[in-house]
Fold this sequence. Notes:
Number of strands: 11
Radius of gyration: 19 Å
Distance between the termini: 39 Å
Strand content: 5-15%
CATH architecture of the domain at 17-25 and 39-103 and 178-333: Alpha-Beta Barrel
Structural class: alpha/beta
CATH superfamily of the domain at 17-25 and 39-103 and 178-333: Phosphatidylinositol (PI) phosphodiesterase
Amino acid sequence: MKITRRSAELCTGAVLVAALLLSACSSSSSSSSTSTTTSKSPASTVDGILGLGRPIVLGHAAGEDVAPHSTMYGFAESVKAGVDVLDLDIQRTKDGVLVVQHDDNTKRTTESDLKISDLTYEQLHQLDNGYWFASSCANTCTGKPDADYIFRGIRTGKVAAPAGYTAEDFAVPKFADVAERWPDYVINIEIKGKGADAFVTADLLAKEIAQLNRTNSVVVTSFDDTVVEKFHTLAPEVAMSPGLQALTNYVLGNVPIPMWERILQVPPVYEGIPVFTPAYVQKTKAAGYVNWVWPNGDGENEAGYLALFQQGANGINASNPPAGVAALNKFLTN
């Protein structure tokens, strides 16, 4: 992302910090999936999650360090691990279907390099979304021995699926697939893209959330504040997280963030600049905000997650859900 610096003193640290406060990150029908995950969420609404009286663990992008990014298999394994909230990103296909995918292309996770917006859902859904997940690296990587790509070929039927799963669980899913399979789980959603194009996605998402009876059980955000504001006008009862400009104004000028977007999603550090500091924690908690921290690829292990809980994180968006849950359990018992 590009960040405009106003001055060395103000922006070298603060705007960079603010810029990272949000960003995060076979058959064609998903109904044939046979995964039967029965774990129960501790709360089925956002208010319930925030009222648990303890920190929480989110499964970032379906637990991307231990399962293929944004797959039904990954979400199911996150649920089995014991996460409290599911986390995902939303893109829109050529035929207007909301799909769970971080990038605007398929290169990082599948065997093809195609634009999501150029594909129909049926075309996208045929791709192998576990193609570049390797056992020898976190998330996805290329250049590893073939044997390291332990989920490659399951989607296309060349390799048998793990017990309890089918090839469908390794495809790019619809947002509705996730929302319907785990109706009692709160879902943290980032609308990808910006401006007018993302407004279309926001409109579709608002309608789908209403149709799925998910108004009280999702948190929605976007890097683009205009998208956040647009979505809020469409679905004012949905909990949200602020975008870049709102966070910049808060960090630089202490401009309050409205309570409808009080869940602040932040990284611990960016390019050596501490973000999730004791002073920041004190400031945000005094104002009544909630901090969900995403480690951004660093410290994605039990010790790293435990340190964030000890520093005051209200939630950790963990790419390694089993480690996140283990850290939370240790934090709660110490």
